[in-house]
Amino acid sequence: MEATVREAAAPVVPVSRCRCRSRPHARESGQALVELALVLMVCMLLLVGTIDVGRAATMAVAVQGGAGAAARLGAQRVVGFGVTDRAIMQRLIDSSAPFLSGCTASGTNPMTCSPAYGGTWTLSVIYPGGLVTEGGSVEVKAVGAIAPLASLARLASAVGLGTITVTADAQSVML
Fold first, then answer.
1. What is the pLDDT, as a whole number, of residue 157?
2. Secondary structure element (H or E) that encloses residue 2, with its range
3. What interhelical angle do 26-74 and 85-95 show, nearest 10?
4. What's the pLDDT at 121?
5. CA 158 from chain center: how many Å?
6. Of the candidates 128, 131, 109, which has an alpha carbon nearest to the alpha carbon of residue 171?
7. Are the beta carbons of 123 and 88 closer than 8 angstroms?
């Protein structure tokens, strides 16, 4: 008898042992969901933080315009009858609309108010040198501490962000 040489055939791998996977395991899709949640939280925090900074900048511009209008009124105090510290503060409040709406000028200088838009504001009229005379100057100042959006107030305090401080200041020479 002759010996025949048989070629060795490639081993057949059962399908169940194949290392290629057509779909991820449930564990991996859960990991992707957790990663998406973490990235989404950071993106939302950045978005809301940007909105807060924009809101504070808008308030600063409006209140700075109001301080300028109030300082121009204060410059007429020497010649204008009825121009008092209270009238100057009311001009500041009215010209800063809508951000200081809800405040009413009181007889105290400086005064503190909490407008409808939130935060706490300190409004003051200052006469450098202490004299109300022609050639003197008047300074109108508004300082506000604005809390972040209500939905993030707890998160902001936990992270240590606190409040955003807005300052508006205008000075004018009396006529």
1. 63
2. none
3. 140
4. 92
5. 16
6. 128
7. no
Using DSSP bridges, classify how beta strands 164-173 and 137-146 pair: parallel, antiparallel or unpaired: antiparallel
Q: Domain segments of the chain: what residues?
A: 30-173
Residue burial 19-38, b: 16+ Cβ < 10 Å; e: rest: eeeeeeeeeeeeeeeeeeee
With cut-offs at 50, 70 and 90, classify the pLDDT of residue 2: low
Distance CA 166, CA 144 (A): 5
The answer to whether 100 and 63 are in contact (CB under 8 A) is yes
Give CA 2 to chain center in angstroms: 94
The secondary structure of 99-156 as a DSSP string is TTBTB---SSSSEEE--TT-SEEEEEEE-TTS---TT-EEEEEEEEEEPPPGGGHHHH
Q: What is the pTM of this model?
A: 0.72
Q: What's the CA gap between 37 and 101, in Å, rounded?
A: 39
Instruction: With residue 159 as reference, give the H or E element that holds it.
Output: helix 153-159
The pair of structure tokens assigned to 45 is 């925090």
